[in-house]
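Q: Joint fold for the lines below.
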Amino acid sequence: MPTLAKVRAAKRAAMRAGEAGMRTEYIAFGLAGETYAVPIGQLAEILRPPPITEVPRAPRAVIGVVSVRGRLVTVVDLRVRIRLPPASMDRRSRILLVDNGTEHVGFLVDDVQQVWRLAPEEIEASSVLGGDQAAHVAGIGRPAGAENNVLILIDLRPLAESA
Amino acid sequence: MNEGGGRGDGGARDDFFSEAQELVDGLGRDLLMLDEMLKKGHVEPEIINDVFRGVHTLKGLSGLFGATRMAGLSHQLEDVLDELRLGRIDVDAGVLDLLFRAVSLYARILSSEKGEAEDPVHDVEQLLLALGQVSNRRAGEGVGAVAQYELDPGLLGVLTEYEEHRLRANIQQGFALYRIRALFSLATIDTALDAVKANARPHGEIITYLPTGSGGDADSIELEILMASKASLGVLSKAIQTGGVSVEEVQRRAPSHSIHATGLPSPPSDASGTAPSISLHPAHPREAPSLRGGPSSAPAPISDVPGLVASNVPSPATGAKSTRPGSGEMSLRSVSQTVRVDIRKLDRLMTIVGELAIVKTAIAKLTDRARSRFVETREFATELGRLNRSFERHLAQMQNGILEVRMVPLGQAFDKLARIVRQISREHSKEVNLVVTGAETEIDKLIVEELSDPLMHMIRNAIDHGIEARDERLRVGKPVVGTIALNAFQKGNHVVIEVEDDGSGMDPKALTAAAIRRGVVTSDEAKELSQREVFALVFMPGFTTKEVATDLSGRGVGLDIVRTNIAKLGGVVDIMSDVGIGTKMTITLPITLAIINVLLVEIGGNPFAIPLASIEEAIVLDESALRTIELREVLSVRGVSLPVCRLDRLFGFASAEHRRGRSFVVIAQVGDRRMGLIVDELVGQQDIVIKPLGRSLARVRGFAGATELGDQRVALVLDAAALIEEVLIPGETRFFGAADAGRS
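A: Joint structure:
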């Protein structure tokens, strides 16, 4: 699976970064035209969406449940979860699997793009966007030498706590 | 049991907990039996020995694992029990209370050793003090009745203190003493002696036996067995007199008469006590010998002849009793997760594994042949199909076998309840008799554990609210002693547990009044409630009819927790009650949680699984037999009205109305409630492993979990009980609707 290869590459990159300095690896993904990124350490796995079973009367953001190698995973539409307009799945859609300690929760994203290694000075505090940013926005990534890329760094763990 | 003893590694410590837990449990059970006997004024000596052995084993075990508080308590208990055994102090309700306290303290110490509770230092010290006072209290002096019998002083001289106590006790009871002489061949003495003992046991108690020193030759030995019995010489002779065995009665000493027995000091080779010193300690005879076999549901261990129990040999039988213990005062759940397994069940599993290995080898061979490419495809497919079927069959057996291993008798939970009944009824000065049936009914270990606390609440409730005070019972002409019946039985794939009391019952009017007063329902709503709905009010959070909370119940917590806990296990609780006659609560539970047989159906194009256990039948929906009664759709099935629920509508699937073709009705039954679930298609039966939905979906109603179908799809498993409650008891939505409104 090419996405898995990406994760592996990212991990290798992370190890190199460990030698180089205090860089953190982020996986960038698309959501409603914006680019978001999440620390690689938060992800257990990246999946192509298998057939998803709808759960009637579930919270709105929950798409349904899937089985990942025998483990039941609740799949949440990340767009809906962070109040972006919903969209239908296509062949670029991916599920980011997060282990919240008690269970795995999958977040559906539009696509998975690339790995960024960000140094602390390449990250702006989320407060630059104004006073009350949602708890899941951890900051803004501005990779040096790629000024056109603005990454919204988010923390998926609080989002995985409650769908 | 303790290969890793004392080294504190996890496995050995787990063993310690499970072993200790079982011992504590066994103790509780034995004490209950003792309590029962005490009430009947007839305490069998072996039961005290059992308790003594249990405590002794516990002492050794806790010492080994450095559980010092436990060892200390055991030591002190052992002292008290030894005095009891030897008749130096009397068994009475006070002493028994202390012993029961010790059992619950053991449970708390175990929890604290596990780090799950606080160390009950203070309580242990108090109990130690109380126990110390008891062991200093000696029983009154008895009479030297033994002297009246024509017993050889030589024989009396070699009796252990315990044997002597038993001898005196029997004489005091007015039982006759018999001397049995039997000649045994040395080659077969073990079995032959056992046979004599077995014959004699139903008639009385064997006090001791010794070689006579005469009558034997190099290959045989003559034993003299001293026995006390209610039976006449004739009856006894008939029972045990065979070749080489003679019975005679030991006469009371009138004119002096010499005795045959010479009472050699050399002891028999087994555990019979041989303490050489002995002057007669007077003791109180109050225990009569007879076989054990109390009313308890617990399997009585085969006990040895009482007189032969050497005082310091821990009995393996005590350790082997399988039951789970009560821990703590607040919860009856055991600290141990261990399941004791019948070795035969494991053997069966082993056999199946062996067969699976054979299948594996065959597959490997077939794979090799496939690689060689000379194999014909068709033949290959046939072979593979055959192997697959074989594999499936063995796998199914394996699953069943493992399920069986998970099954334990409900008695494990019931034993603890008996202790609770005793404790509560004493605290509350209500006399209550617990009658248990069906303790042998097997159910998944997990369910048994989760059942203890709900059952405890129900029984507390029955004693506090159900059983009337003594005066009241007399006034209405009921027996002074109240009865709580705990019945368990299997019904299809369910286990039914009934808790029934013969108390005052529940008055529907009082219930509704209380519910209105507490704001659980409005008076308008109350008018519409059916009788069943009225009784169901007691399961509402915060509901109580008591104006004043007591220790036992009435705080309005309890029954709602009962229902919640039972629902978590996929079960339902029903209540029936008649004023003045009593109340019966019925729990209906699935036998196991792990693998279930389901009917796969399709609703709105989605697969769903309905546990077969809750399905009565499935029929084609006859739209013309549908009626609407008070906005509720009802189907007439063979002349009986069946409320139905259109699942596609309930689940909000689109295009519900315009589906072509026929629909089906799956008739679900849980407890004695029935409902028809209307589905689009019946797909077929399947065994599935049910998995819980994640926490983020925990509040979604109507599903017990989900399962993976063969084709990578996931099917939700319907929770028939929850659906029936949701649809049939609109009170539910009425009472809780607000809380859920914002969620869908």
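Q: Anything notable?
A: Chain A touches chain B through 26 residues (CB under 8 Å). Helices of chain A lie at 2-20, 78-81, 156-161.
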